[in-house]
Structures are given as C-alpha cells and as structure tokens.
C-alpha cells in the first residue's frame, strides 16, 4: 500500500531494510505547498523563506518511522558506549527499587528467586484435617506468618487461617462453611472432600529459576506485585529517556492575562507532564526567548537524550532553530512533515547519542509534532512496545488537505470517533476534550470511513496514566 504523499506510480518504500539516511533520502521529496502553521508571513504574502531555498517535507508515516529508527541507533550507541562515557552509561540498564519501576521496561528477565508458594499453604479459612473424619479439634490454631506448626495425626484437626503453613501430614483443608461440630466437639464435613483440597502446594505457581517474565515486559502494577511476591526488592530496567524542554519566544507570559501583544505560554505547562506520560524524565524546562546565542548555548550544553524546542522552526526573522542546528553541526533527519497542523516540525541528530525535536509554536501544531516525532523516538529509547494500530469509523466527514495528512481531535462514542471542532493550529479547546487524534489522509475522509486513531496517554487504560 502506497503511503499518503507518495508520488503516483512510485513503489512503496520498505524502510525497515534501510538505515536512517537511506530512508530519509527515499521518502523526502519536494513539497510545493507553503506551510499554514508557524511560518512567518508578510501581510498578504507567502511564507518568508530564503530565496534559494526549496523546502522538502517527509510524509507523515515515514517521519514516525525515521524517528523510531533514529532512537534505535541512539540506543545501540548507548549500549556500546561512546567517546562521552556518561552518554553510554545513561542508556545502559539500571537497577531500580520496585517503587520507581512503574512504566519502565524490563532489561533482564524476571526469574523466580524462590518457589511460589515457598511452603504448603492453606487456600481458605477452615480446619487442617488428617485422615478421615470425624476429627478431634486441637485447641491451638494455626495463623499466617507463624512458624511451622506441629504435625497432625489421623483423626485430628486444627483451626487454620488463609495463607498459614499447613501442618505436616495434613490430608486436606476443610472450609469453615463446609464443617460442623457436634456436642462432643468433634468436627464433621458437610460435603464430600478430596485429598489435597484447598491446599496450595509448594511451587504451584513456579519453581526457583523459572522465568516469570521476559526482557521487554512493561512494568505494570501487576508486574510489581509479582516481582515482590517472587522476592525482588529491585528490578533491572531500561532507564527513562532524559528530556530537556527549551521554550522559545519573547512574546510569552508565564502568568496573568494576555496584554499588549503578549500571550500566555501554553506549552510550558503542557509539555512536561505530557512527556512524563510518554515515559520521559523531564530534567529541565528552560525559557530561552528569541535569542540565537542562548539557544545555541543551551543545545550544546544539554546532556539530555532528547532536546525539545518550541517555535522558531520556520524561516521568519527570529526563527533561530535551523541556523543554530547548522552552526552546531547537527544532522537534519526530518525537515518538515506532510501533516496539518504541525507542518514545520523537525528532527535532528545533534550528537551521537542525542536528538532534537523542533515543535512549531502554535499549541495544537506542537501537539502534532509531539505525537509525530517525539512519541516514537521516546518510546523506542525506552524500549516500550509500539501500540497496536486500530481504526474506528468517523461519525461525520472530515475535510482533508490536498497533499498532507491531517490530525483531528476526536472523542470516542461507542463504536465511532466523533470529530471535534476548534482544531486549528493555535487552538487547544478541541484536544483538551479529546480521547484521541484521528489520522485523516490527504483528500479527507467520508462519514463512516475508518480512520486510524492515536490514543492520548491519559485517555487509555494503560500505564500512560502515570504522570510522575
């Protein structure tokens, strides 16, 4: 199937067999339409660009593939170590306490450190009995957490609690509701019993050395419970990718109402928790303004795995991201994506172990860049499995762009995706109410047509709900 944006008659590219550079050369092509979000325009005129510049853009699906492939390259460099030894160490597996492992991925198998259960235990409250009934009930009971009780002899029973060690020579556990005592204090079963009934034998769940979970397992609350039951205090995991966010723009306010041409910064409050929901460790959020020198200094000094910038990715008079990347010798992997909103996003390799994602300054365009480039890169760095793609029919038709993919906020209602209004590049009202983003191919989608959906991390029932 030819991807959206592939020239008519061109073969579909299998980029899985290519390296980043080959894939980039294959999928990028001249794009003749000027961007509609983030590029500076003189009144009534086209986007401002250098006279000799011929802008290229990457089809949306291929941009996501390039971002994931770039992260795989960075992970490989991290495992092998680099000239900057700290960079290699950062991507090496780490041992963390169970309380810090939620949402990470196992970098070593979870092998049983003991038999589970580690001794024969009672599965129910009741009586441990030996031989056929009726039984004489021993006076002292057996509770969970106590030492090995005295063995039983035939014709004897003892009160036992769930989880308690079963006395030696026990035939079965008789549940409380299945026994009665007579006037002489003897215990009688009220229904037929079988040998070993309601006893959890040692090693029923696993034996020492059994593999409980393989490498690559996402650590969920249930995984934490299993690890604790198996005797673990720490687990070996892939570390969280470290992200630094650089907020650009002199026009941004951090508090109060917009005034005098100044606007509130929406991305500073939005991006860090969103990145954490994607599994990242946000190590810093810095406000740079429209200062090329400060931006260059921040990029070169950063030791994060991923640097994210906001705004400044077009070709206006204060759009400094491209010039700074050129000055620091960065390799531009994606320069514009055939997607609306968010067309002027970019991805660059700034160091052997570090990448930069340039997000457009408009809020919804920035969300588009986050999900297009940052999400697959962070997911791959963290060794998280890719979500299974799924589709739902659209409740109503969605107008498309002639050449580019559109990402439209939707809510999920029954078995349909309902497109939301207020989906312009500068608007957050739609995405704030959304469950997902619908991927609308060039040309649009009809009512009832199936659309691929990108879940928002807090709208799923998965681990992404954890923001810290």
From TrEMBL:
It catalyses: adenylyl-molybdopterin + molybdate = Mo-molybdopterin + AMP + H(+). InterPro entries: MoaB/Mog-like_dom_sf, MoaB/Mog_dom, MoeA-like, MoeA_C_domain_IV, MoeA_C_domain_IV_sf, MoeA_linker/N, MoeA_linker/N_sf. Transmembrane segments: none annotated. Residues 1-13, 40-50 have a biased composition (Low complexity). It comes from the Bacteria. CDD domains: MoeA. Its EC number is 2.10.1.1. The keyword Lyase does not apply. The keyword Transcription does not apply. Gene3D superfamilies: MoaB/Mog-like domain, MoeA, C-terminal, domain IV, Molybdopterin biosynthesis moea protein, domain 2, Molybdopterin biosynthesis moea protein, domain 3. Residues 28-39, 51-67 have a biased composition (Basic and acidic residues). Its cofactor is Mg(2+). Pathway: Cofactor biosynthesis; molybdopterin biosynthesis. SMART domains: MoCF_biosynth (SM00852). Keywords: Magnesium, Metal-binding, Molybdenum, Molybdenum cofactor biosynthesis, Transferase. Residues 1-92 are annotated as: Disordered. Residues 244-380 form the MoaB/Mog domain. Belongs to the MoeA family. Catalyzes the insertion of molybdate into adenylated molybdopterin with the concomitant release of AMP. This is Molybdopterin molybdenumtransferase.
């Amino acid at each position: 199937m030819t991807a959206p944006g592939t020239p008519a008659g061109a073969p579909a590219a299998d980029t899985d067999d290519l390296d980043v550079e080959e894939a980039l050369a294959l999928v990028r092509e001249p794009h003749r339409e000027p961007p509609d979000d983030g590029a500076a325009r003189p009144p009534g005129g086209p986007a401002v660009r250098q006279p000799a510049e011929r802008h290229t853009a990457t089809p949306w699906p291929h941009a996501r593939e390039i971002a994931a492939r770039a992260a795989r390259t960075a992970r490989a460099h991290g495992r092998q170590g680099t000239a900057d030894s700290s960079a290699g160490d950062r991507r090496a597996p780490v041992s963390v306490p169970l309380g810090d492992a939620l949402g990470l991925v196992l970098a070593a198998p979870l092998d049983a450190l003991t038999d589970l259960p580690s001794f024969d235990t009672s599965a129910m409250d009741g009586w441990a009995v030996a031989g056929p009934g009726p039984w004489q009930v021993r006076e002292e009971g057996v509770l969970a957490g106590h030492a090995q009780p005295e063995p039983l002899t035939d014709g004897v029973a003892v009160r036992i609690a769930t989880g308690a060690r079963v006395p030696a020579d026990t035939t079965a556990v008789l549940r409380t509701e299945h026994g009665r005592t007579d006037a002489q204090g003897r215990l009688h079963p009220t229904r037929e019993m079988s040998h070993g009934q309601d006893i959890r034998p040692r090693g029923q769940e696993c034996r020492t050395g059994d593999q409980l979970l393989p490498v690559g397992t996402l650590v969920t609350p249930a995984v934490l419970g299993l690890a604790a039951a198996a005797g673990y205090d720490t687990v070996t995991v892939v570390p969280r990718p470290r992200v630094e966010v650089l907020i650009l723009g002199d026009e941004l306010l951090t508090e109060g109402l917009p005034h005098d041409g100044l606007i509130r910064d929406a991305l500073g409050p939005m991006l860090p928790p969103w990145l954490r929901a994607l599994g990242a460790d946000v190590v810093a959020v810095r406000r740079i303004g429209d200062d090329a020198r400060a931006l260059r200094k921040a990029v070169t000094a950063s030791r994060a795995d991923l640097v994210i910038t906001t705004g400044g990715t077009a070709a206006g008079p204060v759009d400094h991201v491209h010039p700074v990347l050129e000055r620091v010798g960065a390799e531009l992997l994606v320069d514009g994506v055939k997607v609306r909103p968010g067309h002027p996003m970019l991805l660059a390799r700034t160091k052997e172990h570090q990448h930069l994602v340039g997000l457009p300054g408009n809020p919804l365009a920035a969300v588009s860049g986050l999900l297009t480039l940052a999400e697959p890169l962070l997911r791959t760095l963290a060794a998280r499995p890719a979500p299974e793609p799924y589709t739902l029919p659209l409740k109503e038709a969605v107008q498309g762009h002639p050449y580019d993919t559109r990402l439209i906020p939707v809510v999920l209602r029954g078995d349909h995706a309902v497109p939301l209004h207020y989906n312009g590049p500068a608007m957050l009202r739609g995405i704030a109410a959304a469950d997902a983003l619908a991927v609308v191919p060039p040309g649009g989608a009809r009512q009832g047509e199936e659309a691929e959906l990108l879940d928002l991390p807090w709208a799923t029932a998965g681990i992404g709900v954890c923001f810290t």
